[in-house]
């Protein structure tokens, strides 16, 4: 299980732009480095991250080996209605992780 | 080619002008290694890329290429009809030209994203924003990296 940290404001004004911060623990092994035995360490990265707001996708990121370990991504969205923000990460070797946060819109 | 009566001053002006045009003609090919160009074309096709509207922000001097803070903003009203569809980040000298691609929509509110990336060497990083009207805008910055990422072995 990868550790996930998400920062979403608990309450927001309707129509305001809110900032979302996400951090997930992952080695993001790029697949170009030799290990102690001189062999290349196989690639192991997160390739896709998505954020859905009440089921509708508002943000998506395709990641490549050039994304640093423990991907930290900050983005914005409009607070349209109260509900749930769902985050999902998928990657090499069948890696999947999900997280969610609730938001109250006044 | 040059008239025998040309003064020294005229000759110098002419030489300067042709030198400048040569510089402009040659520069993009020199500064942009082929791999990055190919990768960009693969993503955006044959579309024309203009400079402006997107602002990429990476510290000009990076101590550790393993974690480089990168942020970007794109000028756009972000309405249902006029919004940023996506932003693609490319680099010149990492083993792979792609860095990350962000997909946005009108619900993003504002195109303001930050993330942490790896840079294996001092190089140029380019951000290309794709707008809903099909236009592409870019911003290229050069970054100096003192400790490279990606290629050194683990100890």
Q: Widest sheet of chain A: strand order?
A: 2-8-7-4-5
Rg of chain A (C-alpha, Å): 16 Å
The separation of the N and C termini of chain B measures: 63 Å
Compute the gyration radius of chain B: what is it?
20 Å
Structural class determined from secondary elements of chain A? mainly beta
Q: Total number of helical segments of chain A?
A: 0
Stated plainly, the CATH topology of chain A is called Immunoglobulin-like
Characterize the structure shown.
The complex is a heterodimer of chains A (106) and B (155). Chain A is mainly β. In chain A, 0% of the residues lie in helices and 53% in strands. Chain A has a single domain, classed as Immunoglobulins (Immunoglobulin-like, Sandwich), CATH 2.60.40.10. Chain A contains no helices and 8 strands. In chain A, the strands form 2 sheets. Chain A has a 5-stranded mixed beta sheet with strand order 2-8-7-4-5, with no helix packed on it. Chain A has a 3-stranded antiparallel beta sheet with strand order 1-3-6, with no helix packed on it. Chain B is globular. Chain B has 2 helices and 9 strands, in the order ααβββββββββ. In chain B, β5 and β6 (98-103) form a beta hairpin. Chain B is an alpha+beta fold and 155 residues long. In chain B, the strands form 2 sheets. In chain B, strands 1, 3, 5, 6, 8 and 9 form a 6-stranded mixed beta sheet that branches. Helix content of chain B is 23%, strand content 39%. The termini of chain B are far apart. Chain B has 2 domains: 1-31; 33-147, Immunoglobulin-like (Sandwich), CATH 2.60.40. The model of chain B is unreliable at 19-31 (pLDDT under 50). The chains are: A mainly beta (106), B alpha+beta (155). The A-B interface holds A 17-18, 30, 32-36, 38, 41, 53, 56-78, 80 and B 66-68, 71, 91, 94-96, 98-105, 107-119, 149-155.
């Amino acid at each position: 299980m990868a550790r996930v940290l998400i920062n979403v404001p608990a309450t927001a004004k309707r129509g305001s732009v809110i900032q979302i911060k996400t951090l997930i623990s992952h080695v993001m092994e790029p697949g170009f480095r030799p290990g102690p035995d001189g062999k290349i360490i196989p690639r192991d990265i997160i390739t896709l991250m998505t954020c859905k707001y009440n089921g509708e996708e508002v943000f998506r990121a395709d990641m490549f080996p050039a994304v640093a370990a423990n991907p930290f991504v900050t983005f914005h969205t409009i607070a349209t209605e109260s509900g749930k923000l769902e985050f999902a990460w998928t990657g090499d070797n069948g890696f999947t992780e999900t997280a969610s946060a609730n938001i109250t819109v006044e | 080619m040059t008239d025998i009566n040309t003064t020294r001053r005229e000759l110098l002006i002419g030489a300067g002008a042709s030198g400048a045009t040569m510089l402009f003609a040659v520069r993009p090919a020199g500064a942009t290694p082929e791999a990055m160009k190919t990768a960009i074309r693969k993503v955006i096709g044959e579309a024309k890329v203009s400079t402006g509207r997107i602002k990429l922000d990476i510290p000009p001097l990076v101590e550790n290429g393993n974690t480089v803070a990168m942020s970007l903003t794109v000028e756009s009203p972000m309405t249902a009809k006029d919004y940023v569809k996506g932003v693609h980040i490319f680099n010149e000298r990492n083993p792979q030209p792609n860095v990350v691609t962000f997909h946005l929509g009108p619900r993003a509110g504002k195109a303001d994203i930050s993330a942490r990336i790896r840079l294996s060497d001092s190089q140029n990083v380019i951000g290309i924003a794709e707008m809903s009207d099909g236009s592409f805008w870019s911003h290229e910055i050069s970054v100096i990296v003192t400790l490279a990422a990606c290629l050194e072995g683990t100890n």
